[in-house]
Structure formats: C-alpha cells, structure tokens
Amino acid sequence: MERVRAGLDAGLWRELTELGVFDLPVVETALLFEELGRALVPGPFVGAHLLPDRGMVAVVDARTGPLLVAHLASADTLVVLGDAGIGEVPAAAVPATAVPSVDPLTPLHRLTALPRVSWRGGPALSAAWRRTGALLTAATQVGIAGAVLDRSVRYARQREQFGRPVGAFQAVKHLLAEMAVRLELARAAVHAAAVAVADAVADAADDVESAVCAAKLLADEAAVGNARDAVQAHGGVGFTWELDLHLYLKRAWVHAAQFGTAEECAERLAHLLV
C-alpha cells in the first residue's frame, strides 16, 4: 500500500507492459483486472488494453457529460469513443482543466472542448470498446469488493470486545455474510460476461450487452456496498487517512461512474430485456 499511496508508478507500468499483460485475451484480462483492483493499483489500465501499443492511454466517452478523463496528465494518448466510431489524439494536445477527484489516486481532468479526431471503425467498434471498458471496470470492482471483505474478516477475527473477537457477534457475522454474497454474485456475473464478450457473434450483440450491463451493475454494488460495510466492520473509522479502507471506497465510487452508472446500466438492461 505504500507503493499504491505514491500514485501512478511509471516503473510498474513498464513492468506490466513488458510482461504482456495488456495483450492478453479478454477472459484472462478480466481475471488480471480483478487482481489489479484487489491491489488498488492506480492507472488507466482499460485504455492500455484497448490500445496496447500506445503507452499510457486515457479514455473518454464523447456521449456523456461532463467529459471527465482519468489520468490524462500521465497519458500518452487519449481515445475518444463516439457515436461515429473511435478516435485517438496525443493527450498533450487535448484542452483540459484539472478538477477535484474523490479519489486522491485517480486525478481527473475535464475537457474544455472535444478534440478533433478522425473517426474510424464505425459505431460497432465504439460500442464494442465501451462494452470491454465496462467489463474490465466491473472486474476491477470485483477485486475491490474481495479485498475489503478479506480485510474485514481479518479484523473481525483479531479485534476483541468483551473478551471475544467481534466476529463472534451475530451482527458482524451477518454483515460479513452479506458482503460475501455480493462478491460471489458479482464475480460470477463478471466471469460470465467475459466469456460472452470473448465468444461474441454479430447476431447476439444484445445478449452480450445484457451480460456486461448486469456484470457492471452487480460489481459496482459489490464494490461500493462492501467498502461501506467494511468501514462499519472496522468500527466506523475507515475514513481516517492512516487506514487504507477509505482509498478502496473512493476508488469504487470513481469506477461506479465509469463506463455506465448504475442508473444507466439498469435502464439499458430494462430496454434490452423488454
């Protein structure tokens, strides 16, 4: 966590690139992103998977507003996902203003204007990249949900009240059990969605999108819900800077706003399933 608290690590990024982790197939990448989430590693990893030969790659969805980009100042390239396709532009050439971020390890910039790009790939490619981004963000959220559960279980076994570990009390047991259920539901949904994306065929695009939307919805709920409950399991002291839990919760909040919020995913699911 000392290394995590230092922020984006260019040396670590080079190590991951040299290992080829951004070139893996989508199913294996989802498993990797779960571990990156568990370790709370900061960085624009989704973009690196979408364009593995462009260094650090930030991503912005041109359909949403405001146009917020994570890690823009550290990125080499900005990928723009638009209705007409995808475009890329050197990150240094993008007009943007730094804005406050709830997560101190995920700096944000707001684009003051959408950069001029040459669209390529068409709407289908843009939609496919959005789905991949949502899937990998969901996988990261699963890692966060698992990490805070593990920390809470260890704390409940070690912390004592009235001569007994707090994990022996029914209220704490129920809290941890609910966290475990959220995690397993989300992990199953993410794994299923990864297989759906990997095996996608043109005539089953709606089924793939439904699987990804469900995975993102459940993973966001697991990450944010588990991080909040972890704060309670630790006696409500999780927001002090010295404790790492607040970093997990804040990262979960950031990811929950990327590649589809809970409301957007629920609305899209309702539309697809009608």
Terminus-to-terminus distance: 45 Å
Main sheet: strands, sense, barrel: 4 strands, mixed
Question: What structural class results from the helix and strand content?
Answer: alpha+beta
Radius of gyration equals: 19 Å
The helical percent reads: 55-70%
Strand order of the largest sheet: 1-3-4-7
Low-pLDDT sequence parts: none
- The ordered H/E elements are HHHHEEEEEEEHEEHHHH
Task: Look at the structure and give the mean pLDDT.
Answer: 92
Number of domains: 2
Gross morphology is globular
Number of strands: 9
The CATH topology assignment of the largest domain is Butyryl-CoA Dehydrogenase, subunit A, domain 3
CATH class of the largest domain: Mainly Alpha
Number of helices: 9
CATH architecture of the largest domain: Up-down Bundle
- Proportion of residues in β-strands: 5-15%
Q: For the record, what is the CATH homologous superfamily label of the largest domain? A: Butyryl-CoA Dehydrogenase, subunit A, domain 3
Domain Acyl-CoA dehydrogenase/oxidase C-terminal: 134-263
GO molecular function, one term: acyl-CoA dehydrogenase activity
Keywords: FAD, Flavoprotein, Oxidoreductase
Protein name: Acyl-CoA dehydrogenase
